[in-house]
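Allow me, if you will, to draw on your knowledge of protein folds for a short while. The matter concerns a single protein, recorded as an amino acid sequence and a row of backbone structure tokens. Kindly check, if you would, that the fold set down in the tokens agrees with what the sequence suggests. You will find the record immediately after this paragraph.
***
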Amino acid sequence: MSTDDPWGYAKAYSYLVLRRGQMLVDFNGNPATKKIDLALADGLLAHRRQDANGHYFLSSAIHFVDDKDSVATRAYFPLAVFWSAWKWTGDRKYLDPIFDGGTTSLMQLNANALDILGIRKTWGPRI
């Protein structure tokens, strides 16, 4: 991975490369990969901001070297980063960005996310 310009941005689809490592943690408990992924999730949470209407959001691109938010032309939200971090730790802070996206984000998770999270009664009717 490169941190030099012009490549040193974490953009929307950059996070897809993490999936194999997340599977290593899920199936084998790989501590090194878990530590890296949790640090990334925490770094992303540090960039979670509130807009003028009070809604939270994450920038579509982040230049982590100087900690500046940027804009990417493609949109994709790294739900798997936060979902995995929540599964591994049980810390609700990792669910906040998912809930920020409302029912659209919840429907992109696995099929039984409502039941896993225990929110079928409150979120189910919205979907």
Summary: The mean pLDDT is 87. The chain has one domain: 10-100. The radius of gyration is 15 Å. Residues 10-100 form one domain.
